[in-house]
Amino acid sequence: MKIIVTDNYEELSDKAAEVMLAVVKADPSAVLGLATGTTPLGLYARLVRDRAENGTSYARVRTANLDEYKGLPKTHEQSYAYFMKKNLFDGLGIAPGQTNIEDGTAADEAAECARYDAVLETLPRDIQLLGLGSNGHIAFNEPGTPFGSGTHVVELAESTVKDNARLFADIAEVPRKAFTMGIRQIMQARRILILASGANKADAVYKMVCGPVTEAVPASVLQLHPCCTLIADKAAAAKL
Ligand code: GLP
Questions:
Q1: pLDDT band at residue 65, thresholds of 50, 70 and 90?
Q2: What confidence tier does 87 reach under pLDDT thresholds 50, 70, 90?
Q3: Which atom of ligand 1 lies nearest, measured to the CA of 178?
Q4: Catalytic residues
Q5: Read out DSSP for the chain?
Q6: Residue 159 maps to a domain
Q7: Residue at 141 is within a domain
């Protein structure tokens, strides 16, 4: 794993934007695996600003998102579909037909997982962006998820519900289940870029990079990826 440690979140976002822009400039029809959470917001703002200033085209880019809360329609402000539209797709001029994400409202979970598995088969990702859960999760693959997993529905860990409650009016509103891309599919991306910011990620960063490769720490699987870059700010990298 290549590791870049930055002084702060702004520099982390600058470096992440450099990586993503290089991918899109090298191949304007690149397939981007995208993530939600607060960590990629600085990166997304920079991509939007770059397009406004330099006209980088996303007309032929296609995207696949990692995960979606079960039960939230794409019009819900906390759904990941809404997050992506608001924070990235509108600003980059990426039309809904170019994007892919699980449907949180799908009644038949197995059919929705099979549909998304099929979508991912046809969309080999040139780069997969990831955030890191404080418990070492990637996407919504919680500790204990088999490394061979495909798209599935998860029961969110209590710590994840607590971590994500800050974005909802009340913890009771945080969905307890989610659809997520599996670890096998994350590992299929040609290149992985994982971002970690803040002291509350320091333990997870340490275990991901220095600990044993174990399903108890989902992100530790990234040690096995041939082309993975971690960009962490000083606070998140403090235990390395
Ligand atoms: C959520 C998402 C993950 C994300 C994680 C960290 O649980 N499903 O994809 O990486 O949160 O989020 P944040 O960047 O807000 O710390």
A1: very high
A2: very high
A3: 8
A4: 67, 135, 137, 142
A5: -EEEEESSHHHHHHHHHHHHHHHHHH-TT-EEEE--SSTTHHHHHHHHHHHHHH----TT-EEEESEEETT--TTSTTSHHHHHIIIIIHHHT--GGG-----TT-S-HHHHHHHHHHHHHT---SEEEE---TTS-BTTB-TT--TT--SEEEEPPHHHHHHHGGGSSSGGGS-SEEEE--HHHHHTSS-EEEEE-SGGGHHHHHHHHHS---TTSGGGGGGG-TTEEEEEETTTTTT-
A6: yes
A7: yes
